[in-house]
Specification:
Blueprint: E1 12-15, E2 20-22, E3 27-36, E4 42-49, E5 55-57, E6 63-65, E7 70-78, E8 87-97, E9 103-112, E10 118-121, E11 127-131, E12 135-144, E13 150-157, E14 163-165, E15 172-174, E16 179-188, E17 196-205, E18 211-222, E19 227-230, E20 235-237, E21 244-252, E22 258-265, E23 271-276, E24 279-282, E25 287-296, E26 303-311, E27 318-326, E28 332-337, E29 348-357, E30 363-370, E31 373-374, E32 380-383, E33 390-397, E34 405-415, E35 422-431, E36 435-436, E37 439-440, E38 442-447, E39 453-454, E40 459-468, E41 474-481, E42 491-494, E43 502-505, E44 510-518, E45 526-536, E46 539-542, E47 546-550, E48 560-561, E49 566-567, H1 569-605, E50 639-641, E51 646-648, E52 655-657, E53 666-669, E54 676-680
Parallel strand pairs: 2-9, 11-18, 20-27, 39-47, 50-54
Antiparallel strand pairs: 1-3, 3-7, 4-6, 4-8, 5-7, 8-9, 10-12, 12-16, 13-15, 13-17, 14-16, 17-18, 19-21, 21-25, 22-24, 22-26, 23-25, 26-27, 28-29, 29-33, 30-32, 30-34, 31-33, 34-35, 36-37, 38-40, 40-44, 41-43, 41-45, 42-44, 45-46, 45-47, 48-49, 51-52, 53-54
Length: about 675
């Protein structure tokens, strides 16, 4: 069955939202559902009101909704920030139809949260004054202008480490509409600088740490001058020979820059006194060392003094430090230790020099190390008085020529204040022989001239150098060894010394010899391989091999030699006989011709007109004059003659004495300029 309604029906259905929460000062949107349940399209107007000062704004005009249709209408709800409402409240919505005049009224529930409003008021004048090393009290006023009681704690920023709030402000609770004074104490450390600090206080909710209020003010630290004198002792040994010094630390204990004057009291008569510096400027908490130096002139015994520092800002701000100038006693003890007892050449050993200043004053000592090469040794060392020894590390190298055997490492320590105050220490080390393949480090060097050519019946001078690079004392004899060495008649001459082949060499020492070789070879010459032998107690060494080129005697030619060519005996005899025959014939022909000429002359001057025979004067053979003596042949380059047993070198004009058993020709090398000289008749 159906019901049929004839006519017009008007009606609305309003659907409100569920409970909505608002905070003070918040504006939010709520939406309301509207449904036209009438039989015709209709327009509707809405009006929403709330409690107190809560306002709601909806559509400004009529809202058209078709029959059987729905729509959503939005409203802006604003809760004032200064509302005193809190908790659950209702908004009232009235919907009025345009055609039928129907009204629909609904209630919309809302919840208003609590409003937290706190006002912090800084101390009066916004400034707190506190002196360094003191404290100051002030208070902050807190007023709750919200809608609920507030519990909060105070936090802050801008407070330096030299300032503190002591005790820490406790948790504070302020009821709605009430005010509360919070007492605070600020404490300034003694080193607080005299300056102003901007400090901000924050009120934080206990439950959420949300900052709900803050205020700022100034804390000013006033000037508090102060000074302190510090030192490590109260006795200064002072003598006449050297200046004694004592260091003091001057500390500006005030909270701003200050200047301090320094002086000794009472009278310093009998002493020579220096204070350095006399006037110092220090920032707050800054310190500086002041040195007091003293030397006795006429004073004797112990004397008490005080070092006084006075502030230039306030003469009443002073500090003093008392000390005693005592008599000086000097003394030192030295000892050497090492874990090594044997050290080879080239090895580095470690030893410790232990020094004890047994006096009562600082002493500067001069150190001297002998025996080994300790490259890291200090030349001077300053030590304070102490009963404990101070170790000084020594790193000592055993050098190449350190003698084998027992070598002492010695240390001497002398006080610069009084040279009579000294100490010595010694430690023995065993140095083994420095050898190579069982032989000492003895080198033999041989040098000659050119190809070391030794002419027949001539001489050759070689230079032999011995170098002892080891650490032994070596003695021995030199000798020329090799095939044919005996035929060279070696003779030795030490440069600047004796004429024998013996040598005595200390470690690191060298010696130079001249070895003269004279050829007595009667056979053909040739190349001889030679060595120099050095032999002594516990050693035998040979030089590197060297060669001597000997020249044998000149062999007479088998006939006649013309330099460029030779004729054998048979041809030579034939040519010589022919020459003699030609010579005799030439002489006879010459005599015959001379007689014929004589007879011709005689007939010309005596026989003309005279038939008488007259004997001619007899021919007399007169003796021939003696032939001239031949001049001595000129000397060639590099040649010289013996005169009075000496020969003059053509290279350096040195007059050299020749061996008595040597006859020219022979050859030798000048020991002064190394020029080769050939001695001829």
């Amino acid at each position: 069955a159906y019901t049929i309604v004839l006519g017009v029906d008007w009606g609305w259905e309003i659907t409100p939202p569920s409970n909505t929460t608002f905070d003070a000062g918040e504006t939010a949107t709520i939406q309301v559902g509207v449904r036209n349940i009438g039989s015709e399209q209709d327009e509707v107007r809405f009006e929403m009101v709330g409690p107190g000062s809560i306002s709601a704004t909806g559509p400004p005009t009529w809202v058209t909704v078709g029959r059987g249709l729905s729509d959503v209408v939005s409203f802006q709800v604003q809760v004032p920030s200064d509302t005193n409402l809190i908790g659950s409240h209702n908004l009232t919505l009235t919907a009025t139809g345009l055609h039928g005049g129907e009204q629909e009224v609904v209630t919309i529930p809302i919840t208003i949260g609590a409003r937290s409003e706190l006002d912090l008021i800084a101390p009066q004048g916004g400034n707190v004054l506190v002196a360094a090393g003191d404290s100051s009290n002030f208070s902050v006023m807190a007023t709750n202008g919200g809608t609920s009681a507030l519990s909060f704690v105070l936090d802050w920023s801008g407070l330096p480490s030299s300032l503190s709030f002591d005790p820490t402000p406790p948790t504070t609770t302020v009821e709605v509409g009430q005010s509360h004074s919070i007492p605070i104490t600020v404490v300034a450390g003694s080193s607080s600088s005299a300056t102003s600090h901007q400090v901000t206080l924050y009120a934080k909710l206990v439950n959420s740490s949300e900052i709900i209020a803050q205020t700022s003010f100034t804390i000013e630290v006033g000037h508090s001058p102060s000074v302190r004198i510090l030192a490590s002792g109260d006795i200064l040994p002072v003598g006449e020979n050297t200046i004694s010094s004592m260091d003091f630390v001057i500390l500006n204990d005030g909270n701003e820059e200050d200047q301090f004057a320094l002086a000794l009291s009472p009278s310093t008569d009998g002493f020579e006194v220096t204070i350095s510096p006399l006037l110092i400027t220090l920032a707050a908490s800054e310190q500086q060392i002041v040195t007091v130096s003293m030397r006795r002139t006429t004073a004797t015994g112990e004397v008490n003094f005080s070092l006084v520092a006075t502030s230039s800002n306030d003469a009443a701000v002073t500090d003093s430090y008392s000390f005693r100038a005592s008599e000086v006693n000097l003394g030192v003890i030295a000892a050497l230790t090492s874990t090594d007892s044997t050290a080879s050449v080239g090895q580095t050993i470690q030893a410790y020099l232990w020094l004890t200043n047994t006096g009562n004053a600082n002493q500067t000592f001069q150190l001297a190390i002998t025996g080994l090469n300790c490259s890291n040794a200090q030349s001077t060392l300053t030590l304070p008085p102490s009963t404990s020894a101070v170790p000084v590390l020594l790193e000592c190298a055993v050098s190449q020529n350190t003698p084998a055997g027992t070598t002492p490492l010695s240390a001497s320590v002398t006080s610069l204040a009084d040279p009579s105050v000294s100490a010595t220490a010694s430690l023995n080390f065993t140095i083994p022989q420095d050898r190579v393949n069982g032989q000492p480090r003895l080198s033999i060097t041989v040098t000659g001239s050119g190809e070391n050519t030794l002419p027949h019946e001539g001489s050759l001078v070689l230079t032999v150098v011995l170098q002892n690079d080891g650490n032994e004392h070596l003695t021995g004899t030199l000798a020329l060894v090799g095939e044919g060495a005996a035929d060279l008649s070696p003779s030795w001459a030490a440069v600047g010394g004796s004429s024998n082949p013996n040598y005595v060499l200390s470690p690191g020492q060298s010696a130079t010899y001249e070895l003269m070789l004279v050829s007595t070879i009667t056979t053909n010459g040739g190349e001889l391989n030679m060595r120099i032998q050095a032999a002594g107690s516990g050693h035998l060494l040979l030089s590197d091999p060297f060669t001597v080129n000997t020249v044998g005697p000149t062999v007479a030619p088998d006939g006649v030699s013309f330099g460029f060519f030779e004729l054998d005996n048979q041809i030579s005899i034939t040519i010589m006989a022919t020459g003699w025959l030609i010579t005799i014939l030439f002489v006879l022909l010459t005599i015959s011709r001379r007689r014929s000429r004589s007879e011709h002359i005689h007939s010309t001057f005596y026989d003309i007109g005279d038939d008488e025979d007259e004997d001619s004067p007899p021919l007399t053979d007169l003796p021939l004059p003696p032939p001239p003596l031949p001049d001595a042949p000129a000397l060639a380059d590099g040649e010289a003659r013996i005169s009075d047993g000496r020969v003059t070198c053509m290279g350096c004009s040195s007059s050299l004495k020749m061996p008595e058993n040597r006859d020219p020709p022979f050859k030798f090398k000048c020991p002064k300029c190394s020029e080769s000289v050939r001695v001829v008749e």
